[in-house]
Amino acid sequence: MTASTAKIVLSTCTLRWSSPILFNDPFDVPRELTFGVMPKEIVEAVSRRLTVLMESPPEDTSHLIPSIRFVIDTIKNSIPSEKKAEFIEIFKNAAAAHRPTGESMDALRDLWRSWIPELRILCLADNPSHIAMWYHYADQYKGAVLELRCDEELDSAWLTAEPVTYSKEKPEVYTADGWAEILSLQQELGVRKMFHVATYSKDIDWSYENEWRIVTFKRPNDIGYYSDFKFNPLEISAIYLGPLISDSDRNSIISLSSEYPNSRLVEVKIGMSRELIFNEILAIQGMQADAAEPRG
């Protein structure tokens, strides 16, 4: 983060969680579900999915919706092998004759549109030595990095963080076949998969970030596209000062670090061997060093 943001975070003991509307990636978290996919295409994809399941039944069908589970279990346990092909063909023809109204998908789209402004996502990096992340998010090395401790006793939110998946392929929520798979699952599992795919997947172009994130919703009284959530001071385990941070910002952050008793204070320098160098310092020593030897 920038030095100005770091000072706000440390002085208020809050982190800002944002709606994807504010993200720099315009394709991060789809604004529309099933965009460009017609209901008829989804029905046809469901038919293909059902055919695959019938022809190669899974051993465990507990994850499937009851209607599909009944069909698969019937084929596995009650239909003679010589009749299976005929049985499958009957179901395929029945699915092909179905004409969807699209009303259910419209309702799902409306629900998702209402969720987008209310989503609150905290984006995290997995290490403090990522040069590109320092450049893009920490004001071109003039900012800071805060390291978070995952503490079970403090019930840290970061314990629920998950890595983002990067792919060249479109996520399932953009394709009829993807929706066929989601719709074949039990409702709770299907919603969970839809939500996870939509919020924890990004294009391969962003893979250099190695991002982790946590997703939740705004509080009832929150307005706008972000929420500032409190955290425990003991959850800050280190404060890294950027290699090009100004003297005034450096001194301000060092002063604020006294409110975080379990955190290390680390000075970052640009090494000559194409890597960042990390030196742990004491707050008082750091302040004295600045007073005795001004940095240019």
Summarize, please.
The protein is of the alpha+beta class and 296 residues long.
Structure description:
This protein is of the alpha+beta class. The chain is built from ten helices and eleven strands. It has helices at residues 3-12, 39-55, 66-77, 84-96, 103-115, 131-137, 176-183, 187-199, 247-256, 283-292, and strands at residues 14-18, 119-124, 144-148, 162-163, 165-167, 201-203, 212-217, 226-230, 236-241, 264-270, 276-281. The strands form four sheets. It has a four-stranded mixed sheet. A three-stranded antiparallel sheet has the order 2-7-4, with no helix packed on it. A two-stranded antiparallel ribbon has the order 1-8. α1 packs parallel to α9, α2 packs antiparallel against α4 (84-96) and α9 packs antiparallel against α10 (283-292). The longest helix has 17 residues, at 39-55. The radius of gyration is 26 Å and the shape is elongated.
| Order of strands in the sheet with most strands | 3-9-10-11
H/I helix tally:
10
Q: Using the alpha-carbon principal axes, give the shape.
A: elongated
Strand content: 15-25%
| Structural class computed from helices and strand pairing | alpha+beta
CA distance, first residue to last residue? 22 Å
Number of strands: 11
| Helical percentage | 25-40%
Rounded average pLDDT: 86
Write the layout of secondary structure elements.
Elements: H1 3-12, E1 14-18, H2 39-55, H3 66-77, H4 84-96, H5 103-115, E2 119-124, H6 131-137, E3 144-148, E4 162-163, E5 165-167, H7 176-183, H8 187-199, E6 201-203, E7 212-217, E8 226-230, E9 236-241, H9 247-256, E10 264-270, E11 276-281, H10 283-292
Parallel strand pairs: 5-6, 9-10
Antiparallel strand pairs: 1-8, 2-7, 3-9, 4-7, 10-11
Helix pairs in contact: 1-9, 2-4, 2-7, 7-8, 9-10
